[in-house]
Amino acid sequence: MSNRRFARTAGWLALACLVAAGLLAWYATRQPASPFAQEQAASVDPSQVSRGEYVARLSDCVACHSLAGKAPFAGGLEMATPLGTIHATNITPDHDTGIGAYSLADFDRAVRHGVAPGGRRLYPAMPYPSYAKLSDDDIRALYTFFMHGVQPAKQPNIPSDIPWPLNLRWPIALWNGVFAPTATYAAKPSQDALWNRGAYIVQGPGHCGSCHTPRGLAFNEKALDESGAPFLAGALLDGWYAPSLRQDHNTGLARWSEPQIVQFLKTGRNLHAVVYGSMAEAFNNSTQFMQDEDLAAIARYLKSLPGDPRRDGTPWQYVNADTHQDIPGAHTYATRCASCHGLDGKGQPEWMPPLAGATSALAKENASAINITLNGSQRIITAGVPDAYRMPAFREQLSDEEIAQVLSYVRSTWGNHGDAVDAKAVGKLRGHTDPASSSPIILQMR
Amino acid sequence: MELRINQKAYQVDADADTPLLWVIRDDLGLTGTKYGCGLAQCGACSVLVDGNVVRSCVTPVAGVVGREITTIEAIEADDVGKRVVAAWVEHQVAQCGYCQSGQVMAATALLKHNPAPSDAQIEAAMVNLCRCGTYNAIRTAVHDLAKQESA
Ligand code: FES
Ligand code: FES
């Protein structure tokens, strides 16, 4: 190749690279379209404020954007990503540290598309792949609530500790292009209004899939609606197993009626289970505030998602058990667990949940069973009243070996057929969830 | 609702989720059953329900309607309970006594199900806490009772 030809080729190549880089830069900082782009600020309608507050409840904004004892929505919750730690931001209408300067279109782009003013991409710890489904009306109401129903709080955001170059935000734009939908929820004409309302809440504001849908290699939810079989099929995160919300007999909601689902989300308990783990927060902050018709809609929608017997295993059935077996697990059960959960494993519904047939005793993942035994459950607060009964922590009272024995007993008695629990698994989670340890579990999702 | 406690019927007016312990102590005045932790951890509140030991602080009252409840006040009406109390007296188990009604309940329930428990079984069943540290005396008394039976 002559020198001149080489120079020409190199020149073309450089130009192509430049154009590609330019296109990428444009794409990665591009402002997505917002239907509100031309809108002028209108006068505030107070009914919009309360409607927006309700949308904020449905969306459980408070779970991440507030810390106990701090100003509401001033941010601060620490969350882990595969790259490092990030902190939820201040979303009060404070001008300097919050979102007080956001226009409705700015707000829309952040909530539904994960793009902050100036084109900076948000980390998808913010569930905008779900919030993308929110309707224009709900976005407008939500904006009105945050601007006029929330007290501004001056609290600077905490920068993430993700090192360069991993802290570059532009690759997120590419991730979004592949994994984040951009369309709002479109009602399915083949289904009735109740089902569609349920689908809207579950997929959109409720962002149930953030915890209950398994994630792929790129940390993306494997499905965002009922068209994908992994949607709400159960997932492991934050040291808990978020069970299937599909019609799975053992690990899902097949044994729950629609009214029982409503009761669970409204009161935190029903004949089958009591909220615990991360769901206790979703209940305390969000589901108990949902209107009865919305809960009925959620129940209708969830009951329409088919289960998968191959994943779920042999359907559980109650089997009578010898309650005075002479094995260590049975002894521990009788003295530590049976007061509440019963020697027959049937619990004292709906106050103390049964362990016979419990998801935690049937699921392959044993994280929830171990975690709640070590650390107990959070207080459930219904309508401002803390509940009378709560799972205590056995971290200080039972060894790894004892916990493994008693859980193996629970998971193999009364027809339960979960695998035995290994003391090493208990030790590992004990370390991770030790508030005094140097590597405590940091929350990944809400 | 109607509760059967110590072979007697009581009418009580309480919310379904009220802990049985509150009803026994505060509404019915049967104060031999003690409140320690309220979290199923100490055993001071132990009573028998249909012969099984339960921690009444974590027993919603609605769940024991129609079942036979026995508290420390009537434990000597039970043959096994009577022997347990006698052993407790003989070995002078109690120090302050606060935990002892629960300890007697736990021992009674154990011996009703298993008249001659092994050392390991005794160890596994007698897990109520005692702030005075009377564990040795408790163990001696229960071993004594177990021995009488196997002899
Ligand atoms: S008061 Fe019931 S176990 Fe402590
Ligand atoms: S004798 Fe005092 S607490 Fe047991």
Topology order of chain B in helix (H) and strand (E) letters: EEHEEEHHHH
Largest sheet of chain B: 5 strands, mixed
CATH superfamily of the domain at 42-179 in chain A: Cytochrome c-like domain
**Structure summary, number of beta strands of chain A:** 6
Radius of gyration of chain A: 24 Å
CATH topology of the domain at 42-179 in chain A: Cytochrome Bc1 Complex, Chain D, domain 2
Number of domains of chain B: 2
* pLDDT averaged residue by residue of chain B: 95
> From the alpha-carbon coordinates, what is the Rg of chain B to the nearest angstrom?
15 Å
| Spatial strand arrangement across the major sheet of chain B | 2-1-5-3-4
| Average pLDDT taken over every residue of chain A | 92
CATH architecture of the largest domain in chain B: Orthogonal Bundle
Structural class of chain B: alpha+beta
Bound molecules: FE2/S2 (inorganic) cluster
Number of strands of chain B: 5
GO molecular function (chain B): 2 iron, 2 sulfur cluster binding; metal ion binding; oxidoreductase activity
Keywords (chain B): 2Fe-2S, Iron, Iron-sulfur, Metal-binding, Oxidoreductase
Domain 2Fe-2S ferredoxin-type (chain B): 1-75
Pfam families (chain B): Fer2, Fer2_2
